[in-house]
Specification:
This protein has eleven helices and eight strands. It is α/β, with parallel strands linked by helices and 277 residues long. It has one domain: Rossmann fold (3-Layer(aba) Sandwich), CATH 3.40.50.1820. It has an eight-stranded mixed sheet with strand order 1-2-4-3-5-6-7-8, with helices on both faces. Strand 3, helix 2 and strand 4 form a beta-alpha-beta unit. The chain is globular and about 65 Å long.
């Protein structure tokens, strides 16, 4: 009888040890999949088993060999301005080199749907709230995703390109240096004069309504002339949306392209937005 009691106490102790195992913090890179679409992500997890998550998207790079570095940099930048240390951040290394601009939305969507539907099981955690954050082309990605799926909120810093017709026309006229985005579009669609609609359909100006979740836009007013040329039009169209959730704008006087990561005002509004949702 005494031996049986000792064995029982032993197993209870073992079970108790299993229950009290502390969650660990880690940063890992992995390939996720959803609906047969793969995407590489960097996961920065706090030492918690139940987490709100910020899914972030980096800006433009020339070569896909640079996207993992860009994803880590984006993660670091968002983590630095985030006032909370209890959120998991997942940064998406979405492709850019061998795709037409905008077609990489499929990798962004796959990452979001994986996070919402599969991450809890695969990571052994509980995902609670999901927020989207993006800078530059990453801001374009999260704005478009907000027309496709619900989240707890979206933050876009200097999203763009806003108007590919205007931007690529400047390149065609030799007013600015040619770039990979417009060159690839021209190879498929011809010039902006011959096929402006094809360029406009991929512009962020074509995605100014139907936002499924509240969204905060941060824009430095001393950004590039190309960005600022179309910003007032974009802001006006978003503000007049009749089928959007709440849209908010924070404009930083004198701020440049990376204002959200440099301006104390932008940082405060970023955190207020997350904490109020």
């Amino acid at each position: 009888m005494r031996l049986l009691i000792l064995f029982t106490l032993f197993f209870i102790a073992c079970d108790s040890e299993k229950v009290t195992v502390q969650p660990t913090a880690y940063r890992v890179t992995r390939t996720i999949a959803y609906n047969n679409i793969n995407a590489d992500v960097v996961i920065d997890k706090p030492a918690l088993n139940e987490v709100d998550v910020l899914l972030v998207f980096h800006g433009t790079v020339l070569y896909d060999s640079s996207i993992m570095t860009a994803a880590n940099t984006a993660l670091d930048n968002f983590k630095l301005i985030l006032d909370r240390d209890d959120m998991m951040i997942v940064s998406v290394a979405y492709p850019q080199e061998n795709v037409l601009f905008g077609d990489n939305i499929v990798q962004g969507e796959a990452a979001l749907l994986w996070l919402k539907n599969k991450a809890s099981q695969e990571l052994g955690i509980k995902v609670k709230k999901v927020f989207l954050g993006g800078h530059s082309q990453g801001g374009y990605m999260v704005t478009r995703l907000n027309t496709m799926h619900n989240t707890n909120g979206v933050i876009a810093n200097a999203p763009g390109p806003l108007n590919l017709v205007y931007r690529c026309q400047l390149e065609e006229n030799g007013q600015i240096q040619s770039g990979a985005v417009c060159t690839k579009l021209k190879n498929v669609y011809g010039t902006t004069s011959n096929n402006p609609n094809a360029y406009f359909q991929r512009s962020l100006l074509n995605f100014t309504n139907g936002f499924k979740s509240d969204i905060l836009f941060v824009q430095g007013l001393n950004d590039s002339p190309i960005q600022m040329y179309s910003w007032p039009t974009f802001k006006k169209e978003v503000s007049s949306c009749t089928n959007c959730q709440q849209t908010m704008f924070v404009e930083i006087v004198g701020g440049k392209h990376t204002s959200m990561f440099e301006s104390p005002i932008a940082r405060t509004e970023f955190n207020n937005f997350i904490n109020s949702h």
